[in-house]
Amino acid sequence: MRKKSLPLSxxxxxxxxxxxxxxxxxxxxxxxxxxxxxxxxxxxxxxLIGCVISNRNFSFGPLMKTKECTINIPxxxxxxxxxxxxxxSGRDTDKFKRFHLTPVAASRVKAPLIDExxxxxxxxxxxxxxxxxxxxxxLKVLKAWIDPAQKNPKTLHHRGNGKFMVAGKTVTLRSRxx
Amino acid sequence: MRKKSLPLSxxxxxxxxxxxxxxxxxxxxxxxxxxxxxxxxxxxxxxLIGCVISNRNFSFGPLMKTKECTINIPxxxxxxxxxxxxxxSGRDTDKFKRFHLTPVAASRVKAPLIDExxxxxxxxxxxxxxxxxxxxxxLKVLKAWIDPAQKNPKTLHHRGNGKFMVAGKTVTLRSRxx
Lengths: 178, 178
Fold this sequence. Notes:
2 copies of one chain form a homodimer. Chain A has helices at about 10-15, 60-65, 80-85, 95-100, 130-135; strands at about 5, 20-25, 30-35, 40-45, 50, 70-75, 105, 115, 120-125, 135-145, 155-160, 165-170. Chain A is about 15% helix and about 40% strand. Chain A has one domain: Electron Transport, Fmn-binding Protein, Chain A (Pnp Oxidase, Chain A). In chain A, strands 1, 2, 3, 4, 5, 6, 9 and 10 form an 8-stranded antiparallel sheet that branches. The first copy, chain A, has a two-stranded antiparallel ribbon with strand order 7-8. The first copy, chain A, is built from 5 helices and 12 strands. Chain A is α+β, with helices and mostly antiparallel strands. At the A-B interface, β4, β5, α3, β11 and β12 of A face β4, β5, α3, β11 and β12 of B.
């Protein structure tokens, strides 16, 4: 595996910029992937994430049942897989095969990591009380991985209707924010 | 005002890319601004937003009391105000004055819009049940405004510790996503 362990205290840096992510679930040995943009950090450490997965998505069932998933962050090189995973359903498609993505065993959850993504988070659902009303799950990150070779990853950020903003340059401001 | 009304069905396009936002509140005629990145869309229409405002922030009190705020999206030209609003507290600072931002009366809430931001959303707290445990508020957007002159806004996306990714180019993928 090309990725190395990332301290949990650094996880917020990955999600705070708002990238499109690929979420995997696994049930009965069958793994699925969904493309997703509706997530937010909720706490730094342990890292808590608010994540919206609709009950219209195939992933909703496996997530409710297993209470586990992985969040993987793709870069622009994976654009066709990102769009493809969003256009198809796990009901009738093995997305790993169809979009040439490589599943890698996670350490703490049964859902696989996506090798081609530059970062991966192993997550457990710790609160599903808002799943009925808002499709909102509170996830706790148990383990984080990052590809140290990618210093300025060109993440994708969905602007609606197939338009994606590609991450531009990074600037440093006189900010005291964490 | 340079902004025009934006259909509520288009609001998700503004927040889904994950920009840093400036949130205003107002209590007893005193307006405050906070810099924030922890938000997610929760539903398309009416637009619902999950928004984390810590009880350590000055804005938490006014938001809990008035149940109203505005979410304003700045571009890179406002970098110093974005960093400044994050580095200071409404407890002892009038941030509109200090950072040369112009308050504009909103139509549905008492919190002011920020004229210099390219988009502004008037919001009401519809669910504060997660505010105690997760500092998480569910907001409903009542009215949305956008500056039609800014076609490809260079939004800011926080990567931690004062590093901000500036929105790059927009690409169109073969996506059937909304």
